Amino acid sequence: MQRLFTTFADSWPGFGLLVQRLVTGIALIHERVLFKDASTTASIAAQAIGAVLALLIMIGLWTPVAGALIAALEVWSVLIYPGDPGTAILLATFGATQAMIGPGAFSIDARLFGRKHIGS
Fold it and tell me: pTM of the prediction?
């Protein structure tokens, strides 16, 4: 499972990844969950998926998978919904970079799948 994660950066880089995860999750909730019309089943499903992915990315659980799914959801959103694609492109970029970089040391993934020290 550790091969799924590229790094568990700590110190300032880890804090930067934490901030990036929090900003991504908050922006995803703000744009995709709070201020979207929930008139169709597809939009309700997209809101529910967006909420779950935002929660996963913010707590740092299954970060590479959640980041890739955020990127895919936002690319789909750009193709399906007309209008200003700026926020969707930004969220797709954040999701993709989270999938590539990894969660950082301040995440649940680091606790579950990080390197273990065998004590004597």
Answer: 0.85
